[in-house]
Amino acid sequence: MVNGNGIDESFNDRLRQAESAEREVQRLEPLAAEAPQLRLQKAKAQKEKERKQAKDESLYKAKNAVQTASDKQNRVPDLLGQAARTVIELYTLLKEIDSSRRQAMEALAVADRVDYDIELEEGEEHERSLDRDTRGLAYALAARHGDTKVKQMLEELDPEFTMLRGCNLDEPLYRDVANFVVRHAVPQEPTPQALMTKTPEPVPGVPVPPFPDQPSNGTNEAAGPDGASGENGAGGPNI
User: What is the pLDDT, as a whole number, of residue 6?
Assistant: First the structure.
């Protein structure tokens, strides 16, 4: 590096290179210091770009979805009208069915009363032929007639009848609609849920007039509830 003639030439070259590099480092050092900040800004810009793209795509999808919903909503008034008319038709039909069933029960009540009168007359004749008391016979026969008998007769005419026979009650929506209409049209009819869990009772009928006391053709009269009338005094029938 150093000889008798002083500093060697290669040393000077090396020094010049080092000093040149030092100056270059000093020149690049401020720029290099900016690198972390520039990287941060780049990442931020990229993130903002991605967010804007995501927002634009979401807004586009939202506008399309809103437009689709609006187009479909235009069909709601017409469909609601159809549904309302169908519900009204079903409601009216159920009311008509209930009315027909009630008419049937009124007719059956008349037929049952005829049977009762015949049984009572025949029973009294039989009891008198045996010289037995006919008091209480009317009440004994009445126990087999009246509202319960009329319901039984109606059931025999159309076994296992229900307003919703043959309907699909497994689907919850169908069941809800049926429940709504039946509850308003025929309140006394079992609900769809009840129909699914147990055998429905026959449709309740119109009240059947109570059987009045039937006077016999002989000297005895049909006994009252306490069996106090008649020539034998208080007590049950003397059978």
Answer: 55
